[in-house]
Design a protein that fits this description.
Largest sheet: 4 strands, parallel
Number of helices: 7
CATH architecture of the largest domain: 3-Layer(aba) Sandwich
Strand order of the largest sheet: 2-1-3-4
CATH topology of the largest domain: Rossmann fold
Number of domains: 2
Distance between the termini: 34 Å
CATH class of the largest domain: Alpha Beta
Helix content: 25-40%
Strand content: 15-25%
């Protein structure tokens, strides 16, 4: 029996297709690493995409292409599955909760050779889980590379625009591109007087398909609601 995996991301509500196509490309790359599975993709922003992706499939695993286990992964995705009448699907922990992604962030900073890093993340005024992950990653980068690491957010304090200016690199702790990475982060950094280089978002690194494939193969977490980060438990 074919095992099914579905990669789900938020997408871009203002223009759903480009983000959906990018996610579909990721699914193709993951599929190449998992020949025994059928890997598909769907964004929440594209109307009906998730329902179409699970239609006629008797269960599988959902891999959330999100950087934290919050409302979208614990509530919205299960609700969308229920609305579609889908049964037998398990929601895994999202990309940002995977220790392999935290390792990748350390590697990216080492490869950049920077001694000053701004870790840019989305954050949330409603949940502490996203900031916990970002701060954990920042701590690891600092401890393992010796770099000075600042953390700034778009949707909570300290906001990127309020950080001290200067040189170095900015590592966007985001799962994909889009308006936040392409517009909000650069604008906030410019306001802060940042004069360094902005790296591509973590989720677009060429090593991410392998990380996603490994997570799908492990299928460790039965549901995103069990994510230790949502409960304030560090690994």
């Amino acid at each position: 029996m074919t095992q099914h995996a579905l990669i789900v991301a938020h997408g871009q509500p203002s223009d759903p297709r480009p983000a959906a196509e990018a996610l579909e490309d990721l699914a193709v790359q993951v599929q190449a690493l998992l020949p025994d599975r059928k890997v598909a993709a769907a964004t929440l922003a594209e109307p009906g995409a998730l329902a179409r992706a699970v239609a006629g499939r008797a269960g599988g695993v959902i891999f959330p292409m999100f950087m934290a286990g919050g409302w979208f992964t614990r509530v919205q995705i299960p609700e969308r599955l229920a609305e579609a009448g889908a049964e037998g699907w398990r929601v895994l922990e999202p990309l940002g909760c995977d220790p392999a992604v935290h390792d990748l962030c350390v590697t990216l900073v080492r490869e950049a050779g920077a001694d000053r890093v701004v870790l840019a993340a989305h954050g949330s005024f409603k949940s502490p889980a996203p900031s916990r992950i970002a701060r954990h990653v920042a701590g690891r980068i600092g401890a393992e590379t010796g770099a000075e690491v600042l953390v700034g957010f778009i949707d909570q304090a300290p906001q990127l625009s309020t950080l001290p200016g200067g040189a170095g690199i900015c590592l966007p702790f985001f799962a994909a591109g889009g308006d936040h990475v392409g517009e909000d982060v650069p604008a906030a950094l410019a306001k802060a007087g940042f004069r360094g280089r902005i790296l591509p978002p973590v989720g677009l690194d060429a090593r991410v398909p392998g990380i996603v494939a490994a997570a799908i193969t492990r299928g460790e977490a039965v549901c995103a609601g069990a994510c230790r980060w949502a409960k304030g438990q560090n690994p």
